[in-house]
Amino acid sequence: MTILLEVSYFLAMISFIIGLKFLSSPQHAKLGNIIAGGGMTLAIIVTVYHTFYAGPVTINLILIIIAILLGTILGRRMSDKAEMTKMPQLVSYFNAMGGGCALLLGIIEGQQLYLGQNTDRVAEVVLMTAMMIGATSFSGSVIAYLKLSGKVKDIRTRFVSIASRLLIISMIVLPFLVSFEVLHLNLIQEIAILGSLATIYGLVFVFPIGGADMPVVISLLNSLTGVATALAGILFHNLLMISGGIFVGSAGVLLTLLMCKAMNRSLWNVLAGNFKNSGSSTSSSAVEMEIKRTSIGELATNLAFSSKVAIIPGYGLAVAQAQHLCTQLEQLLETKGVEVDYIIHPVAGRMPGHMNVLLAEADVHYDKLREMDEVNDSMSSYDVSIVIGANDVVNPAAENDSSSPIFGMPIIKAYNSKQVVVIKRGMSKGYAGVENSLFGEDNCQLLFADAKDALSGVIGELKTLNF
């Protein structure tokens, strides 16, 4: 029976690798999810059967089966009900559950070690590390969920910064003080203190971070949950937990660093919750820019005479829930021979791949999605670029204003298009807090309207023109 268990774990690990490989391609992402999920399901079934086979049915086994069924049903219902615009919140919620599980496993295993009078300090350190990481991921993900839901605002105070540093120092120093018997604490007391400190740290860790940096935070918290799972796997001698945790942890760290690179910011700068300070470019650009307005009718006319159009989505598209109208506009233009592409910035939205998921939900074909680096050199071939809900990621100040907070950040070079139309509700600034110099370009016009109303109006005008 042990051989069957090991074989199922091996097959599950192989399914994780294949699933992860398929997830790198939008066309095969769904299949990758199915393969990885199938491997995990196989491992769970064999593990439960192995527990049943090893001895009589106990209350613990019954509780495990009930928990699995409840988790499956609730998870499926939540996923089915969640709108695509709420996907970042759902990811944060699920990640919080993963961190919470690692925390609970650490507490339970710590109790077992204490009651068994285990003197293996290495095992205790691994346990406490897994528990602290899980606690941080749990509370941090909860705050991320609340911030994405608009229920908690950014808190950037000196107290939060100082508290964050003190908590880190305390969590590092406490185990050494106990090991060298400077503090006389038993394992349960040590776990309780470290767990509490880590939970509080998760709160102050996410509090200062702004909404536009949430993709980085979610990715980092996800990687922490993976690390906690791998450490828990070491404690339980479970190869599947170790391998799965390593996959999640390493992928999360890599994605976090790639997104930081896409913003030309260090991870520390993101976690500190601020851009580098600058004030000159903001005030001067506000004075020098001459804003040119356009109308729904004028935009529709320009699109009717275009041969190639780019749609550049941002978080505002998700807020307006206008992704389906984008698809309708794309289909209407393509029936008349107009080529339409969607250009995606790596950090657009509020979670990794947010725009990709949003557009996929609206049945936008994968071949229509273009990465920033793929098209930046050929942006001049687009007759019209429509910017919907994006701001900093198309701001030319990132390239030509060394005093700007976003200087050096790779952007989508929408300004190279023959014409740029930015759809936005008002003149609000992006997350960096600077004016967008794109608005003052000769080839840029602003359409002040809700994205949903604007796109609906453009589609109506095109139909009126018998386009």
From TrEMBL:
Pfam families: PNTB. The keyword Transmembrane applies. This is NAD(P) transhydrogenase subunit beta. It is an enzyme of class 7 (translocase). It is found in: Cell inner membrane. Keywords: Cell inner membrane, Cell membrane, Membrane, NAD, NADP, Oxidoreductase, Translocase, Transmembrane, Transmembrane helix. The transhydrogenation between NADH and NADP is coupled to respiration and ATP hydrolysis and functions as a proton pump across the membrane. GO terms for cellular component: plasma membrane. InterPro entries: DHS-like_NAD/FAD-binding_dom (IPR029035), NADH_DH_b (IPR012136), PNTB-like (IPR034300). The chain crosses the membrane at residues 6-24, 31-52, 58-78, 90-108, 128-146, 166-185, 191-209, 216-236, 242-260. The lineage of its organism: Bacteria, Pseudomonadati, Bacteroidota, Flavobacteriia, Flavobacteriales.
